[in-house]
């Protein structure tokens, strides 16, 4: 990325969940990536890939037990978050780093007005008076396209798309440097989804924020992201700029994600599915995690562990056959 400065740097992060019934579930396995100032990084993959666990690790919100960060570093502005005190993390959460959760109803309190909920966040983190917080909360509602006159209304009076706007207003209320967005538009129809994504891009420019966008939708990645990391069974299988991945797919799993996109492969009216299921995190394959589902699997794949290889210009792939596939 040249001289660009990493706002967040994750190095060899591993997270496990341990229970009597399931045993040890390896949710995240030695993941490393950077998020640079002013960029949007997309984390793409199926449900259960470990994307949300990565986001919760950044905020130190992994519930323990059963979850535990086993190893790694999460450096924010050059300092390891994992070494910070609880008090220091409370200052970072919401203020420096905020998160938009997938379901707005898990974030919003049904018995408080939406305005008061935003004002409470502002008052807590900005150290200003309640009166000032109320004024700023009204301004935040306007920024996300909700008239401030609706300040005193309750969550049940809003549609799904409007609730998500409220959640975004709460997440951005203290002008965070890094926004973690976990499937922020999944439950919304296509028209509302487009409005929310456009609004998030506008707000990113307004607040000069960086975004880590968690999604399973490559169409959303194309609209929103500068770079993308494809996550599978707790590992990054391919990462690079959006242009690199869209123009030169190197991993069979990435190819499978694209083939399942409507309109991507115009030679057939039928969508292609990736055969099989993601492996159980409590019983992962010992070598390549995708090998049991891979259409290109060979004897070598059953004997060697693939490392993340640099294919040039910051395009990395975890596949033993990547060079041969890339030359085709």
Automatic annotation (TrEMBL):
Keywords: ATP-binding, Cell membrane, Membrane, Nucleotide-binding, Transport. Residues 13-258 form the ABC transporter domain. This is ABC transporter ATP-binding protein. InterPro entries: AAA+_ATPase (IPR003593), ABC_Ni/Peptide_Import (IPR050388), ABC_transporter-like_ATP-bd (IPR003439), ABC_transporter-like_CS (IPR017871), Oligopep_ABC_C (IPR013563), P-loop_NTPase (IPR027417). Signal peptide: none annotated. It is found in: Cell membrane. CDD domains: ABC_NikE_OppD_transporters. Pfam families: ABC_tran, oligo_HPY. It comes from Blautia producta.
């Amino acid at each position: 990325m040249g001289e660009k400065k990493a706002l967040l740097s994750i190095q060899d992060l591993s997270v496990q969940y341990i229970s009597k019934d399931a045993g040890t579930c390896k949710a995240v396995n030695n993941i490393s990536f950077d998020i640079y100032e002013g960029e949007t990084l997309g984390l793409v993959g199926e449900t259960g890939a470990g994307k949300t666990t990565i986001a919760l690790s950044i905020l130190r919100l992994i519930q323990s037990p059963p979850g535990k960060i086993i190893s790694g570093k999460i450096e924010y502005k050059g300092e390891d978050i994992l070494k910070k005190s609880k008090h220091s993390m409370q200052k970072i959460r919401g203020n420096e780093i905020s998160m938009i959760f997938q379901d707005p109803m898990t974030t919003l309190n049904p018995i408080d007005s939406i305005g008061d909920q935003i004002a409470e966040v502002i008052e807590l983190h900005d150290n200003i008076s309640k009166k000032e917080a109320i004024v700023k909360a009204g301004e935040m509602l306007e920024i996300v396209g909700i008239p401030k006159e609706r300040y005193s209304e309750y969550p049940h009076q809003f549609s799904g798309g409007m609730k998500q706007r409220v959640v975004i207003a709460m997440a951005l209320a203290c002008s965070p440097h890094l926004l973690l967005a976990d499937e922020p538009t999944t439950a919304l129809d296509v028209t509302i989804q487009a409005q929310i994504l456009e609004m998030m891009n506008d707000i990113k420019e307004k607040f000069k924020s960086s975004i880590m966008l968690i999604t399973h939708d490559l169409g959303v990645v194309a609209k929103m992201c500068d770079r993308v990391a494809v996550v599978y069974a707790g590992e990054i299988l391919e990462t690079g700029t959006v242009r690199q991945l869209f123009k030169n797919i190197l991993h069979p799993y990435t190819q499978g994600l694209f083939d399942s996109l409507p309109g991507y492969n115009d030679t057939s009216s039928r969508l292609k599915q990736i055969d099989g299921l993601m492996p159980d995190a409590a019983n992962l394959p010992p070598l390549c995690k995708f090998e049991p589902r891979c259409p290109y699997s060979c004897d070598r794949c059953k004997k060697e562990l693939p490392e993340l290889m640099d294919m040039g210009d910051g395009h990395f792939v975890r596949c033993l056959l990547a060079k041969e596939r890339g030359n085709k």
